[in-house]
Design brief:
- With 450 residues, the chain is of the alpha/beta class.
- The protein has one domain: Glycosidases (TIM Barrel), CATH 3.20.20.
- It has helices at residues 18-21, 34-39, 57-71, 82-85, 95-110, 126-129, 139-154, 167-175, 187-211, 233-256, 261-269, 279-285, 332-344, 373-391, 434-445; strands at residues 3-5, 11-15, 75-79, 114-120, 160-165, 216-221, 226-228, 291-295, 300-304, 313-316, 351-355, 396-402, 421-424, 429-432, 447-449.
- The strands form four sheets. It has an eight-stranded parallel beta barrel with strand order 2-3-4-5-6-8-11-12, surrounded by six helices. A three-stranded mixed β-sheet has the order 7-9-10, with helices on one face. The chain has a two-stranded antiparallel ribbon with strand order 1-15.
- The protein is globular.
- It binds beta-D-glucopyranose.
- Beta-D-glucopyranose binds at residues 17, 20, 165-166, 169, 222, 295, 355, 402, 409, 418.
- Residues 17, 20, 165-166, 169, 222, 295, 355, 402, 409, 418 line the site of beta-D-glucopyranose (BGC).
Amino acid sequence: MGKIQFPEGFIWGCATSSYQIEGGVHEDGRGETIWDRYCSIPGNVANGENGDVASDHFHRYREDVALMKRMGMKAYRFSIAWSRILPAGYGEVNEKGIQFYSNLIDELLAAGIEPYVTLYHWDLPQALQDRGGWTNPQMAEYFLEFGRICIDRFGDRVKKWITLNEPYCAAFLGYYEGRQAPGYHDFSAAVSAAYHMYVGHGLVVKYFRESGKGGEIGIALNLMGRLPFSEKPEDVEAAKRADGYLNRWFIEPIMLGKYPQDMIDFYTSQGVVLPKFQKEELELMSQPLDFIGLNYYNDFHVKYSEKVWPLQFVIENLPHSVVNDRNWPVTEMGFKRMMKRMKEEYGVGNIVVTENGTSFHDVVSGNYEVKDYARLDYLERHIRVLHETIEEGVNVSAYFVWSFYDNFEWSFGYNSRFGIVYVDFKTQERIVKESGHWYSQVIERNGLEV
Ligand code: BGC
């Protein structure tokens, strides 16, 4: 038996987000969010489900933290629901909302678990959507206001901050593909939303530095390989475009202070209306960060398709791919490729894997066990490759499994389970899955036995 040993001090944790786990949507003055609204529209979410109760974390956070502690977690990544702090999106602060997160943070610290706090994981206050949501340039200022309150009130205890989670999804799935809240179908609006998110990100980073609170700040991007389906030149071009759409449009403004010119030209040629890129705003969004969060799930293959406007490509799996219950292939070598690329192409000096995990249909056995070997295998492959990547000289300081427990998986409702802890949504009982027991051992050994 060999051993795979991670560097001393490597941080192992698990991640969640507010709307996906909290429930308690009408409690303690929380304002409505775009996800409450989106879920209420028939057809948007599988089985008409919503986050009203979710994993009931709002009421059970103490037990949840105790379980994390028993599992040996060193860190926990969660997000703050903007509408608990500012029910109208701006203006009056809801002290009860502050209290909830303050208690959670204290509970974590008492358990020896370091909080990694995401400011925006998609649950925008509906009141701000009513003002145009992220397409409104003023949103950057509203985000600053929210960020400032969180940094002021929690920054004495929270030392790791993430401004935005997957701005690609929030902008393009929300405003163009309509698969997420607010559910629009307007490509130009999506580009504009992504731009304003980045201006907001820049304002919050600037405030954080000026606040003198100390600690680290970064952003979580879902960067994943887009490979040509065949050698045909149109597929090769399509893959480059898909990479520009998902990856380069998001990493380049942050790391290089500019948007990719080939994509600007392409979008313009298709009649997409682009924001007026302002020099000062590009400078703001490219301020140095302490880490880049990588959310990695899988690579995809890309085929040219003239039917799709404006992107002209479709995503397709290679024949015989091993897939999860969402039809996502398992592609751990792509994980390594992306981390190397982040370092070599963009000069990222510190990567935090802010999410990695997979969804499988789980079965609870008669003696209350969940033998999720497929998920365990997925995690093991990715953690082994992560180790190789570190050995090859890429600096990665932390790894977070998505997710701590089963939760409201956006438009898939409760059917898609990513947890390493099983949640029985009828009773709210938690059962640590086989993958969870295995992950605890990884943390304890700071590595793997192979
Ligand atoms: C998101 C999570 C989500 C996960 C699995 C990521 O894109 O950040 O909120 O649950 O993927 O779909």
